[in-house]
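Quick start: what a row looks like.
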Amino acid sequence: LLLVAAGLLGRSFVRLLHVDPGYDAAGVLLARIHLQPGQNDVDGRISQSILDRVRAVPGVGHAGIGNMAPFAPMSAVMMLMLRGESAESINARARSYVVTLEYLEALSLRLREGRVFEARDVAAGVRPVIINEEFARIHFNDGRPVLGRRFTSSLWGDATIEIVGVVAD
C-alpha cells in the first residue's frame, strides 16, 4: 500500500511539473521589498525609483512591481460586488494583484484578448482591470464581449473600472 501511494504521489508530482503556470519564469528575478514601518508609497515615488534603478541594469528587458507574486505563499482574495452600467451586477471572489505597468511583460503573461496596462491609464478617470480566462468564463459567459465592460465597486471608492484585457490562466 505504501509503495502504491508513493508511486501515485511521484506521478502526480511529475504531472504537476508540467502544468502551465500561465507565465514564463525563465529569466525572471523576484525580489521582495519591505518598506520600513510608517513608510508608505502612496504617490509611487519609491516604486518608481526602484524600477528606474532596476531598468538601468544591463540585460533587464522589463521590470514591474506587484503586491504579490504568482504562487506566493500569501495572496489577497477580495470579494467584489460589481455594479454594471446596465442592470448587470456581479458578486465575485478573486485574487487581486495591484501591479505597475510592465508587470505583465516582465512575467511574459500571455494576453488572450485586449491590451496590457499603458501609461495613459495612470491618469485616466477609469481604472483598468485585466482578468484571467477563468474569471471571464465564470462571470461573463453570456456571449457578450468581455472587453470594455464597466463596473463600479465600493472597494475602489465607487471608481469606475473597465476590463481592458484577458490573460491566460
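That is the whole record. The beta strands are 77-84, 89-95, 111-114, 127-132, 150-153, 159-167. The mean pLDDT is 81.
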